[in-house]
Amino acid sequence: MSSQLDPSRRAALKLIATGTIAMSLTMPAPAAETAQSFAVTRPIHIRSVSLKVRDLATMTAFYNQIMGLDILSRSEGESYLGKDGQVLLTLKARPSGEPDNGRSAGLFHTAFLMPDRASLGKWLIFAVKNGVPFTGFSDHSVSEALYLDDPEGNGIEVYADRAPETWHWNGDRVAMSTERLDIDSLVAGLPGDARLPYVAPQGFRIGHVHLRVGDTAKAEDFYLKTAGLDMMAKIPDASAIFLANGGYHHHIGANVWRSRGAGLRDEKMNGLDDLAFSVSEPLMDGLRRRLIAAGADFHERGDTIEALDPWGTRVNFVSAV
């Protein structure tokens, strides 16, 4: 889900950049706040993402200084970034790799989840004051979201969830929408700190990953019937589906908006390399049986089951006690 930037929002962002909104507005935020832990305490949730990149130094600096991830370690050709000692993002140098064309199967966006609404507002002020360009802003009912791209065009969402008890349901499907984000309310009364590097708050995690796929029915077969997620929402024309575990609104999104009919991914193309789920250890046997029944291409390495989705994206399922 995303929303395009319109002129009135450009005006609001200009006011943020000059400090006008952050210093003058004091109305309370209408949305209830919740600790982000709901998303990452589900029995199955997103653990990490790996990207293949052309310019490792530039990309490492962006995710460290702008997105606020700590550089946890580096090796030859790779950077490991995360928060609270947990690796969330691995960057792998592929200087000769081809740019992601945006039409093949791959990454639509990595969604970084703030622990609360105030943290999202503070990051928005920081980003605007540092000239970070945005591609959209949305209120999705279950969450409030900001959209941008990294220096190599990989999509990013930065969002904060509303409290799960405020979400609306239609049976076992959660109600999500794409409405105008109230930027004024989001930044009201918050301090405008523009100092580099940004330091992400404790609890900052990847809440979900949204993929470009060639066929949402095939995505459903893999991520629901095989991986064990639940269908949480589906756009009426089936151009996008949203799946999760444990009653979250979505840990995985999959759409065909620009990639309908896409086949296997080209290994020469940069962008998404793999994604990893954390899976509660008691669920691993069931996952293994479903992979075997589906005839899926997978193997095991230590506490991890490595599988390929229908487009050749490597998906790691890591056992968690």
Q: Tally the helices.
A: 8
Strand fraction equals: 25-35%
End-to-end Cα distance, whole Å, is 32 Å
Largest β-sheet summary: 8 strands, mixed
Secondary-structure element string: HHHEHEEEEHEEEEEHEHEEEEHEEE
Q: Please list the strands of the largest sheet in the order they lie side by side.
A: 2-3-4-1-15-18-17-16
Whole-number total of structural domains:
1
Calculate Rg over CA atoms: 19 Å
| CATH homologous superfamily assignment | 2,3-Dihydroxybiphenyl 1,2-Dioxygenase, domain 1
Mean pLDDT: 92
Coarse shape: globular
CATH class reads Alpha Beta
Q: State the total count of DSSP E strands.
A: 18
Provide the helix percentage: 10-25%
Topology-level CATH name = 2,3-Dihydroxybiphenyl 1,2-Dioxygenase, domain 1
Going by helix content, strand content and strand pairing, the class is alpha+beta
Level-2 CATH architecture: Roll
Unreliable stretches, pLDDT < 50, 5 or more residues? 20-36
